[in-house]
Amino acid sequence: MTNFSSRFFFFPLLILALILHFSVFGDSPHNPYGIKGLNELYLAISIVFTVLLLLASAENAPREFRILMYYCLYSAVVFLIFPAIFAYYTYGQPVVFGLIEERRVLFCLGFAPLLFLGKRVSTLQFERGLLYAALIAAFFSWCFKFGLIPDMRAEVRSDDRPDRSSIGPYLICFGYFYCIQIWSKGISPINGAARSKTLYMVIAALLLLTLVFATQTRQLIVLCLLFTLFCLRAKAVIWAASLSILLSPFYFFPSLLEILGLNTEFYDSTLEGVEDGVRTHTISSIFAHLDQVNWLPSGSLSLMWQDGFIPYFGEHFFLSDVGVFGTLFRFGFLTFFVIPMTLFVYHRIAKNITTDMTFIYSTMLAFFAIWPLNGLFEYGQPVITMLFVIHALRARHLRSQEPIHERRAYPQLQGSY
To answer: Transmembrane ranges (predicted)?
Structure first.
């Protein structure tokens, strides 16, 4: 009965939860299959689920659950509540609109349903669930690429990337990370079981090709290549040589790229176009604003309240596109305290779960490299949460391998076994 419920009930739920957690069908100007309100529905489910687990577990909550609740509490207070308060005192924006603007931080609560489901399926099923969800996102990306499914967006502006898609890009990236990690070691990052390197290598190549030809987002491609270098290290030379051989036909016959539908002009213009112009304008506006307010925290504004930043900085001002500079705008001089403090807290949380940080280090180092273009703490919570969930599942496996007489028996850890 347990195997039946695991395979036919919890396993499909896990795939669905991963799809929702990484906003594969979340409403976005860049997602041709986005469903309005779906992200908010998932956040509401995560909040309710977390509260119910807290009430059900009470003092006997599993150790990982309690530790990750500290992570959620810290993230919500610092990156959700504080910017809303800063915006209230700087611009007079009601706090509720500030909370709405930074609601993506609440994706940290996604750990609760993911960890709950992860404990009710086998490790192999969990890994397959992650890869199936990533392949679903890749499938819809290719469908949009070849016009098999029409664009569902009501309006597509020229600067909303009409020729490209953004369908679960971070899920595709994370699936690629996981495949490369397994290909590097030949074992599962969770329980150390042997895995087929060839299979995961093929899936990794498929996911990377999806990012290059379908998603066509430069920072995500760089992110994947950096993770590969950080993860493989000594094997990076072999990986680079393999890529050179695979890409050699495109070097000798560049027309193949156009046949496959790659927008070569987009990749050539690394410093031109709307996106980069918007980033330059936003960053310059941020530093000019910080000079005017003496580097005091300013929070963030919501378009639902008096058109957000438009009256102050114009239509091309987006904190989500400038990564750490957006954090600098929100927190002002406090940024130089908030960033190291947050990295310290997250590191301590991970270390308290288990000391094996191999996968976490490689992933976070790759994200640091694109931090100027991506708000890691404000918009990267789905990835950070997923890292912690995998970390917690590994800790649970390692603890299950301990002889019973060596296990710590004090009450607060009983729920972990």
So the answer is: 41-58, 70-89, 129-147, 167-186, 198-214, 220-238, 322-346, 353-373
Q: Provide the angle, in degrees to the nearest 10, between the axes of the packed helices 111-118 and 63-76.
A: 160
pTM (2 d.p.): 0.86
* Collapsed DSSP state (helix, strand, coil) of residue 34: coil
Rounded to whole angstroms, how far apart are CA atoms 319 and 219? 16
Distance (Å, rounded) from C-alpha 156 to C-alpha 320? Answer: 19
Task: Tell me the pLDDT tens digit for each residue of 164-212.
Answer: 778 999 999 999 999 999 998 889 999 989 998 999 999 999 999 999 8
For the chain, the domains span: 2-416
Work out the number of other CB atoms within 10 angstroms of the CB of residue 340.
10
Q: Is the dihedral of CA 281, 283, 286, 288 positive or negative?
A: negative
Around Cβ 208, how many Cβ atoms within 10 Å?
Answer: 21
Quickly list H helices, 123-273: 123-145, 169-185, 197-209, 218-232, 236-252, 255-259, 264-268
Q: Which two tokens stand for residue 265?
A: 């002009």
